[in-house]
Each structure stands twice: as C-alpha cells, then as structure tokens.
Amino acid sequence: MKHLEGSALAKALGGTLGVLVLLASSGCATVRPEQRAILADPTMQFDAKSADQAALDHALDNREGSTGGGSVRGGGCGCN
Amino acid sequence: MPSRIPPIVAAPSARRRWLCALGGLSIVVGAASAQAQVASLDVSSALFVEPSKRSGLTVLNPSAALAVSPSNWLTVQGGYEADIVSGASESVKGGRLSNVDIVTSATHFADTRHALSGGFMITRASTHLSGSYTYGTEHDYRSNAFALSAGTDFLQKNTQIELSYGRGFDKVCTAAYAASDAPSSRLALDNSKGCFTDDKKRASRDISLNNFQVGWTQTWTPVFATQMVLSAALQNGFLGNPYRSVVIAPAGDQALENHPENRARGALGLRGKYYVRNLQTAFSAGARLYRDTWDIFGQTYEIDAERYMLPWLRILVRGRYYTQTKALFWSDDYTGGEPATGPRGQYWSGDRELSPLSSYLIGGRALVTREGRPGARVAGLFLSLSGAFGFDLLKTNLRDFTLGGRAPDDTVAMLWSLGFRGEF
Question: Relative to the CA of B184, which of A57, B79, B87, B176 has its CA 20 to 30 Å away?
Fold first, then answer.
C-alpha cells in the first residue's frame, strides 16, 4: 500500500499556493472593467452550483473512484 | 447508504426533531426575509436511472434552497435535499473463478437520505467569506459536515483566489464485531434494522473527513478566462460497504469487504472558457488529474458549448471522457490466478468504483429566463424567474469487473434534471 505522507500533501499544497501567487502577480491587469461585457455573461462563468451540474457531480461521485478538482465560483464577472 | 429492507417509518421522536429543525430554519429565514432586499428560491429535482435485468437502480433527488440577503453584505441560506433510492444489488461479490451464485444473491433495497443545511456569506468590496453546516441522515448513515470558504480578487478583479476547507464527522452502521476480530471472520449487514440503537448486533463506526481546496480564476482577455482548482482530501475510518461480502477462498468462504482505514486523495483541475464572437458561443474545455493513496489514477477530459438561441433561451451541450486505474488491492477474484485475479494482501473489495474503468458522457441543458421590468414583476412576484431542464447519458466500460464471471448489464445510466429559480 502506498502512503502519501500528510506532510508531503501539505508541501504540495503550499508549493502550489506559492506558484499561484507568482503566476497571478505576473498576470497583470489584462482586462479593464469596461471590457467585461462578455466575461460578465452567465455563459462565461465557472459555476459549479447549477442544479443540473450538482446532480451530475453527485451521480458521478457515486460511480467513479475519484473526486475533487471541480469548478469553483468565479469567472470573468468580477462584479462583486 | 442504501439498506436491504423496505423504508422504516421514522419514529415519532425523529419526526419531532425534523419538524423542530425545519421550524427553526423557517424562523431564521423568515426573520431575515422580513427586511430582505433580495431573496432567491431554488427548487429542483433530478432522476437517476440505471436499468438492469438483475440489479437496476433509481434515485430521485428533490431539493429546495432559499437564500435571503437582509443587507448588501450578508446572505443567509438554508436548504433541504433528499436521495430516494430504490433498486437491487448483489450483496456478495465473486469473480470469474467463484462458484457462488451471484445472480440470485441480488437483493432489493430502498432508503431515503435527508439532508438539511444552513449557511451564510459575507461579501465585502473584494472579498467574501462563507460558512455552512449540513446534517444528513438515513437508516444506516449519519453525517455532519462543516465548510468554510474565503475568496478575494485583485489586479482590477482579473485574478480571483478562493480557499475552502470542509470537515465531516460521519457515522456508519455495521454488524457488531470487535476491532480485534480477524477481518476474514467479519460478517456483512443484512439489513439496517437496529442501526443507531442499543441493539447489540449493530455497531456504529466513525468516518473522519477533511477536504481542502484552492481555486484560482484568471481573466486573460475580454473573451478568455481560465480556472485551476487543487483539491486534497483525507479520509479515515470505515471506508467500505457494510452490506457487501467478498468471496475470499476457493471453497466459497465470504467475509465483509475489507478496505484500508485511511485514504488521502488529491486532484488538479484545469479549465478554460473562450467566447467565439463569430459563433456567439462560449466554449469550455477542461482536464482533471486525480491520484490517491489507494493507487487510483484518474483522468477526466470535458468540453462544452453554450449559446443563446433566443434572448431568453440558452442551450448547453457537453461531452466528457473519464478513465481510471484500479486500486492496488482490487481484484476481480481473490481466490486465485493472475493478473486480473488473485489475492491482494490483507485487503479485499467488491467495489466496482475501485476497478479499472472508463466512461463516456454526453448531455445538455436548456435554460429559460424571464426577467421582470421595473414595476412589472414576473407572475406578479419575481424579479426574475428561470427554469432549466437537463439530460445526460453515461456509459461505463468496466474492464475487469465481473459478477461471477458475467459482465454487469447496468453500465448505462440516464440522468434527468429539472430546476426552477426565482428571485424576489
């Protein structure tokens, strides 16, 4: 049985967070607020909370051996 | 978790607890809505059907959620959902070498899971914090789940980061055996009667769950955005199916499914959305990689496209491919042979989700939205009202899994969903 140590997971998580911050910092402000008309549309949102998607995720979780890595709230809107 | 007996009518005390809980929720929500600026109500239902000659499965999943914003920085929400499960399944797993009659071991079962949830979200200029609690109950399973999530955006809202943590304290009912009993001598449950009571033939075992998630959403151009999500989960406790026995010896000896008590899981999801102006369509593509300490490696690839067919009608179509390797200790038959069969050390499993498999999914959704106008609400009540209908078809290819040497016939599943959302 392979065992992934808890500390290894924590290191992986910390490392990924660091990479995220670096990448995001280098992303610069590429889209100005007045250019967000399309990004603000519901079709461009990463939203895991639609009823059909939630039902689908629920079914797949019970039919497959893997889970996680799904989409989270966010997208081009940036309007809150 | 489904039981093998017809649903038991809830005891009067259990009913009272549910009524009290629902009453409490309605008071909280009612108090908030008295001064609410905006409230939304989501009502939906999904129907999952997996036809089979021997072991079909039907799950009806109705749900309702109410969210109220008493101020522009606070949202309070509450919800209820149920899983009404019925069907038949094989309580004994044997493979291609077993002499056990798996077909006649299929037993009918029915159960209902109730889940009640409540939560809040605090939103400030560029940050938000949310928390929730969910209590779930069924005849043989109890769950308590807490979740916290915090997010912020910066660089003129082009970058959004969200961190989430979830903690679960679950309990599962099993047959009463001592931890010191040899796993090969443990028996499976035959029904859920006596679970979570002082019945000496039943035991309650803990499951501890920790979930971590970080998400990064980035807009790159006025028509292109990406999202990366990293998830990790730690599970500890009874992680098998208390009803399933596995044939572990050539003579036909059976024992309760025996899974390791610890599992660490990690997944990385990457997806992008791109709007093609000429086609007036938003395209999305994503990939997910998964790995856990049971040695399962999973890959998911998905695409979808969504377009306004009319100003009030959106259509989405989607496709998905999934593949995974088997758990290190999974075998189709533990009584001998290699490579698909043979013992796998101290553990044994009859779970098809731990076997090597792949699946294809196609589906879609139609969403109709009606917006009210100033002074003229939809149906005299709603600021906006929307309805969505979805359908998905899932085909699973079980590469090595058999029931007594026969390939299962319940590998096609259909999912219908219907939901309505109103803001008022």
Answer: B87
Strands (DSSP E) found in B100-158: 106-123, 127-138, 141-154
Residue B1 lies in a domain: no
B353 and A2 in contact by Cβ < 8 A? no
ipTM value, please give it. 0.80
pTM for the model: 0.84
Q: How far apart are CA B359 and CA B395, in angstroms?
A: 5
Q: Give the C-alpha separation, B393 to B320, whole Å.
A: 10
**Total structural domains within chain B:** 1
DSSP B91: S
Q: Quote the mean pLDDT of chain B.
A: 87
Which segments of B1-126 are extended strands (E)? 38-50, 57-71, 74-90, 92-93, 106-123
Q: What is the pLDDT of residues B399-418, one digit of tens each?
A: 999 888 888 888 999 999 99
CATH of the domain at B188: 2.40.160.40
Would you say B309 and B279 are in contact if contact means Cβ atoms under 8 Å apart?
no
Partner residue opposite A69 with nearest CB, options B48, B164, B290: B290
Helix (H) or strand (E) holding A2: none
Tens-digit pLDDT profile for residues A56-67:
888 898 889 888
The full DSSP string for B185-238 is G----S--TTTTTT-TTEEEEEEEEEEEEEEEEEEEETTEEEEEEEEEEEEEE-
Domain assignment present for residue B199? The answer is yes
- Among B45-59, B278-292, B385-399, which stretch is predicted with the lowest mean pLDDT? B45-59
Query: Phi then psi for B236, rounded to 5 degrees?
Result: -145, 135
Asked if the structure places residue B2 within a domain, the reply is no
pLDDT value of position A58 = 86
Give the 3-state secondary structure of residue A15: helix
Chain-chain contact of A51 with B308 (C-beta, under 8 angstroms): no
Residue of B nearest to A38 (CA): B223
> Would you call B31 helix, strand, or coil by DSSP?
helix
Residues B288, A16: Cα–Cα separation, whole Å: 16
Higher pLDDT, B410 or B319: B319
Chain A residues within 8 A of B260 when measuring between CB atoms = 1
Could you identify the residue written with the tokens 């390939």?
B407
